[in-house]
Amino acid sequence: DTEIDPLILSHIDDRASANYSLGLIAETENDIQLAKSYYLRSLDADTGFIETNYRLAQIYHKENDFENAKKHYHQQEKLSTTTGDLLLGLASIYLSEEQYDKAEDYYREAIALEEFNVQAKLQYAKFLLTVRHSQNGYELMQEVSALNSDNKTDQTIGDIYFNTGLYKEAVSNYKKIKTP
Fold first, then answer.
1. Half-sphere exposure of 89 (CA within 13 A, CB side)
2. Of the chain's two ends, which shows fewer C-beta atoms within 10 Å, N or C?
């Protein structure tokens, strides 16, 4: 997920690449502040380093620094093709900021972009159930469940049902989980 094609790296300033790599190492060692400093140095060397913007957006998002997260998500979007992960990140931020219409737009865009993105559909379904109080969320989860019956999906759907008070549906999904 965090690997970059060597052809892409070939045109990027070596300092940007080195600092990006050091940031990845620091992140895998769970030293998030050090990772952030390396990523910022990477952008100082090359503001167009797409993956650095994405990694910073994710870090800022986890720290609830939504303004910086949005800045880096939008920078990545401007420099590269839009991805489902990018759109879901923005949807999550706008949801946290209670800007529900913007959040919904990003969820819909993520699903339109990647029709088979299970996580996008499940996050949107949860949004529909918890924020919009819409039956469409329930129907979307049933659709995902019918097309993607695996333990992770069944667990996620069960958790969403449980957390929204739909206990009968949660039990039904938890029972689908296959034990090794």
1. 28
2. C
Q: What are phi and psi of 116, to 5 degrees?
A: -105, 20
pLDDT in tens, 31-40: 999 999 999 9
Q: How far is CA 104 from the centre of its chain?
A: 14
How far, in Å, CA of 41 to CA of 112, rounded? Answer: 35
Instruction: Give the DSSP per-residue string, 45-88.
Output: H-TT-HHHHHHHHHHHHHTT-HHHHHHHHHHHHHHS---HHHHH
Would you say the pTM of this structure is higher than 0.90? Answer: no
